[in-house]
Amino acid sequence: MRYKAVIFDFFGTLTVASAPEERVAAISAVAEAIGAPAEEFRELWWQTWSERCVGAMGDFSTALADVATRLGVPASEAQLAAATEIRRTGERAFRGLRRDAVSTLRTLREWDVSTALISDCTDELPDEWSTVEVAPYIQVPVFSFTARLKKPDPRIFALACEGLGVDPGDCLFVGDGGSDELAGATAAGMTAVRILDEGTVHHRFEPVNWEGPEIESLSAVLDLVDRP
After folding, report:
1. 5-18+95-224 CATH pick, 3.40.50.1000, 3.40.50.300, 3.40.50.2000, 3.10.129.10
2. How does pLDDT run across 6-20, given as a tens digit for each residue?
3. Is 56 helix (H, G, I), strand (E, B) or coil?
Protein backbone atom coordinates (compact mmCIF):
# COMPACT_ATOMS: atom_id res chain seq x y z
CA MET A 1 0.00 0.00 0.00
CA ARG A 2 1.41 3.39 -0.98
CA TYR A 3 0.10 5.19 2.13
CA LYS A 4 -0.98 3.72 5.43
CA ALA A 5 -2.87 6.87 6.41
CA VAL A 6 -4.50 9.96 4.95
CA ILE A 7 -4.68 13.07 7.10
CA PHE A 8 -7.15 15.79 6.17
CA ASP A 9 -7.62 19.46 6.92
CA PHE A 10 -11.26 20.34 7.66
CA PHE A 11 -12.37 23.83 6.57
CA GLY A 12 -12.07 24.26 2.81
CA THR A 13 -10.89 20.67 2.43
CA LEU A 14 -13.61 18.37 3.70
CA THR A 15 -16.00 21.31 3.62
CA VAL A 16 -17.01 23.70 0.86
CA ALA A 17 -15.38 27.03 1.73
CA SER A 18 -17.70 29.79 2.87
CA ALA A 19 -17.72 33.13 1.07
CA PRO A 20 -15.87 36.02 2.76
CA GLU A 21 -19.07 38.04 2.96
CA GLU A 22 -20.73 35.20 4.87
CA ARG A 23 -17.91 35.23 7.39
CA VAL A 24 -18.17 39.01 7.73
CA ALA A 25 -21.94 38.80 8.26
CA ALA A 26 -21.55 36.08 10.89
CA ILE A 27 -19.03 37.96 13.01
CA SER A 28 -20.91 41.23 12.54
CA ALA A 29 -23.98 39.54 14.04
CA VAL A 30 -21.88 38.65 17.09
CA ALA A 31 -20.71 42.25 17.40
CA GLU A 32 -24.29 43.49 17.20
CA ALA A 33 -25.36 41.09 19.93
CA ILE A 34 -22.95 42.67 22.43
CA GLY A 35 -23.41 46.23 21.19
CA ALA A 36 -19.93 46.58 19.70
CA PRO A 37 -19.09 48.57 16.54
CA ALA A 38 -18.93 45.91 13.84
CA GLU A 39 -15.86 47.06 11.94
CA GLU A 40 -13.72 47.60 15.05
CA PHE A 41 -14.89 44.30 16.49
CA ARG A 42 -14.11 42.35 13.31
CA GLU A 43 -10.63 43.82 13.07
CA LEU A 44 -9.69 42.97 16.66
CA TRP A 45 -11.41 39.58 16.50
CA TRP A 46 -9.41 38.53 13.48
CA GLN A 47 -6.20 39.91 14.99
CA THR A 48 -6.64 37.53 17.91
CA TRP A 49 -7.10 34.43 15.74
CA SER A 50 -3.71 32.91 16.51
CA GLU A 51 -4.39 33.18 20.24
CA ARG A 52 -7.98 32.01 20.06
CA CYS A 53 -7.36 28.94 17.93
CA VAL A 54 -4.86 27.48 20.41
CA GLY A 55 -7.11 28.12 23.39
CA ALA A 56 -4.95 30.92 24.81
CA MET A 57 -8.04 33.12 25.29
CA GLY A 58 -10.34 30.38 26.57
CA ASP A 59 -13.62 29.34 25.00
CA PHE A 60 -15.69 31.58 22.76
CA SER A 61 -17.60 33.33 25.53
CA THR A 62 -14.42 34.07 27.49
CA ALA A 63 -12.58 35.32 24.41
CA LEU A 64 -15.59 37.44 23.48
CA ALA A 65 -15.68 39.07 26.91
CA ASP A 66 -11.95 39.81 26.59
CA VAL A 67 -12.35 41.46 23.19
CA ALA A 68 -15.38 43.43 24.39
CA THR A 69 -13.35 44.74 27.31
CA ARG A 70 -10.51 45.80 25.00
CA LEU A 71 -13.05 47.71 22.92
CA GLY A 72 -14.55 49.34 26.00
CA VAL A 73 -17.88 47.59 25.48
CA PRO A 74 -19.62 46.59 28.75
CA ALA A 75 -21.22 43.35 27.52
CA SER A 76 -23.63 41.74 30.00
CA GLU A 77 -23.82 38.03 30.76
CA ALA A 78 -27.08 37.87 28.83
CA GLN A 79 -25.51 39.55 25.82
CA LEU A 80 -22.52 37.21 25.93
CA ALA A 81 -24.81 34.18 26.12
CA ALA A 82 -26.90 35.40 23.18
CA ALA A 83 -23.77 36.14 21.14
CA THR A 84 -22.36 32.70 21.92
CA GLU A 85 -25.47 31.01 20.54
CA ILE A 86 -25.33 33.21 17.44
CA ARG A 87 -21.72 32.18 16.97
CA ARG A 88 -22.47 28.47 17.36
CA THR A 89 -25.33 28.66 14.88
CA GLY A 90 -23.15 30.51 12.41
CA GLU A 91 -20.28 28.05 12.72
CA ARG A 92 -22.60 25.11 12.03
CA ALA A 93 -23.49 26.76 8.72
CA PHE A 94 -19.82 26.71 7.72
CA ARG A 95 -19.52 22.93 8.00
CA GLY A 96 -21.20 22.04 4.74
CA LEU A 97 -19.28 19.09 3.33
CA ARG A 98 -17.99 18.59 -0.18
CA ARG A 99 -20.29 16.17 -1.98
CA ASP A 100 -17.70 13.39 -2.03
CA ALA A 101 -16.41 13.82 1.54
CA VAL A 102 -18.36 11.00 3.18
CA SER A 103 -17.97 8.54 0.31
CA THR A 104 -14.22 9.13 0.08
CA LEU A 105 -13.65 8.69 3.80
CA ARG A 106 -15.89 5.65 3.92
CA THR A 107 -13.94 4.03 1.09
CA LEU A 108 -10.60 4.71 2.75
CA ARG A 109 -11.79 3.01 5.91
CA GLU A 110 -13.15 0.07 3.90
CA TRP A 111 -9.68 -0.22 2.38
CA ASP A 112 -8.24 -0.22 5.90
CA VAL A 113 -6.43 3.06 5.30
CA SER A 114 -6.15 5.00 8.55
CA THR A 115 -7.61 8.52 8.68
CA ALA A 116 -6.97 11.58 10.79
CA LEU A 117 -7.97 15.22 10.84
CA ILE A 118 -5.91 18.31 11.73
CA SER A 119 -7.96 21.50 12.00
CA ASP A 120 -7.05 24.99 13.13
CA CYS A 121 -10.25 25.94 14.91
CA THR A 122 -11.80 27.40 18.04
CA ASP A 123 -13.88 25.48 20.57
CA GLU A 124 -17.05 25.10 18.51
CA LEU A 125 -15.76 22.34 16.22
CA PRO A 126 -14.29 20.02 18.90
CA ASP A 127 -17.34 20.58 21.11
CA GLU A 128 -19.72 19.50 18.34
CA TRP A 129 -17.49 17.12 16.40
CA SER A 130 -19.68 14.09 17.10
CA THR A 131 -22.51 15.76 15.17
CA VAL A 132 -20.45 16.21 11.99
CA GLU A 133 -21.28 13.62 9.34
CA VAL A 134 -17.68 12.65 8.64
CA ALA A 135 -16.78 12.15 12.30
CA PRO A 136 -17.38 8.35 12.29
CA TYR A 137 -14.81 7.94 9.51
CA ILE A 138 -12.03 9.95 11.19
CA GLN A 139 -10.07 7.83 13.63
CA VAL A 140 -7.93 10.58 15.14
CA PRO A 141 -9.25 14.16 15.11
CA VAL A 142 -6.68 16.76 16.18
CA PHE A 143 -7.99 20.24 16.91
CA SER A 144 -5.69 23.21 17.46
CA PHE A 145 -7.91 24.48 20.28
CA THR A 146 -7.49 21.34 22.37
CA ALA A 147 -3.94 20.50 21.21
CA ARG A 148 -2.81 24.07 22.04
CA LEU A 149 -0.87 24.00 18.78
CA LYS A 150 -1.64 25.25 15.29
CA LYS A 151 -0.40 24.50 11.82
CA PRO A 152 2.31 24.59 10.53
CA ASP A 153 3.89 23.61 13.88
CA PRO A 154 5.39 20.14 13.25
CA ARG A 155 4.16 18.97 16.64
CA ILE A 156 0.52 19.07 15.57
CA PHE A 157 1.28 16.79 12.62
CA ALA A 158 3.18 14.49 14.95
CA LEU A 159 0.11 14.22 17.19
CA ALA A 160 -1.94 12.82 14.31
CA CYS A 161 0.76 10.30 13.42
CA GLU A 162 1.19 9.22 17.03
CA GLY A 163 -2.55 8.81 17.42
CA LEU A 164 -2.69 6.55 14.38
CA GLY A 165 0.53 4.74 15.19
CA VAL A 166 2.10 5.46 11.78
CA ASP A 167 5.26 7.14 10.58
CA PRO A 168 4.95 10.53 8.83
CA GLY A 169 6.51 9.03 5.70
CA ASP A 170 3.54 6.68 5.41
CA CYS A 171 1.02 9.56 5.47
CA LEU A 172 -0.65 11.58 2.75
CA PHE A 173 -1.80 15.03 3.90
CA VAL A 174 -4.68 16.71 2.05
CA GLY A 175 -5.45 20.40 2.55
CA ASP A 176 -6.52 23.55 0.75
CA GLY A 177 -3.32 25.31 1.86
CA GLY A 178 -4.45 27.58 4.69
CA SER A 179 -2.15 28.09 7.70
CA ASP A 180 0.84 27.09 5.53
CA GLU A 181 -0.28 23.54 6.21
CA LEU A 182 1.12 21.97 3.05
CA ALA A 183 4.66 23.12 3.75
CA GLY A 184 4.15 22.15 7.38
CA ALA A 185 3.07 18.63 6.49
CA THR A 186 6.00 18.27 4.10
CA ALA A 187 8.45 19.47 6.74
CA ALA A 188 6.94 16.93 9.14
CA GLY A 189 7.85 14.17 6.67
CA MET A 190 4.48 13.61 4.99
CA THR A 191 3.54 13.73 1.33
CA ALA A 192 1.25 16.71 0.83
CA VAL A 193 -1.31 17.45 -1.85
CA ARG A 194 -3.43 20.55 -2.26
CA ILE A 195 -7.14 20.25 -2.94
CA LEU A 196 -8.35 23.13 -5.09
CA ASP A 197 -11.25 25.35 -4.09
CA GLU A 198 -14.67 24.77 -5.55
CA GLY A 199 -14.95 27.91 -7.63
CA THR A 200 -13.21 31.07 -6.46
CA VAL A 201 -14.49 31.15 -2.87
CA HIS A 202 -12.11 30.61 0.02
CA HIS A 203 -11.62 31.91 3.55
CA ARG A 204 -7.84 31.66 3.95
CA PHE A 205 -6.08 34.51 5.70
CA GLU A 206 -2.96 34.27 3.58
CA PRO A 207 -1.96 33.38 0.00
CA VAL A 208 -1.03 29.78 -0.74
CA ASN A 209 2.59 29.28 -1.75
CA TRP A 210 2.59 25.78 -3.15
CA GLU A 211 4.15 24.26 -6.25
CA GLY A 212 3.42 20.64 -5.39
CA PRO A 213 0.68 18.28 -6.60
CA GLU A 214 -2.96 19.37 -6.69
CA ILE A 215 -6.29 17.59 -6.97
CA GLU A 216 -9.75 18.93 -7.79
CA SER A 217 -11.88 16.62 -5.65
CA LEU A 218 -11.67 14.46 -2.55
CA SER A 219 -12.47 11.35 -4.54
CA ALA A 220 -9.17 11.92 -6.38
CA VAL A 221 -7.46 10.97 -3.13
CA LEU A 222 -8.50 7.39 -3.85
CA ASP A 223 -6.36 7.42 -6.99
CA LEU A 224 -3.35 8.32 -4.85
CA VAL A 225 -3.88 5.46 -2.42
CA ASP A 226 -3.29 1.98 -3.75
CA ARG A 227 -6.37 -0.15 -3.26
CA PRO A 228 -5.50 -3.29 -1.24
Report:
1. 3.40.50.1000
2. 999 999 999 998 888
3. coil
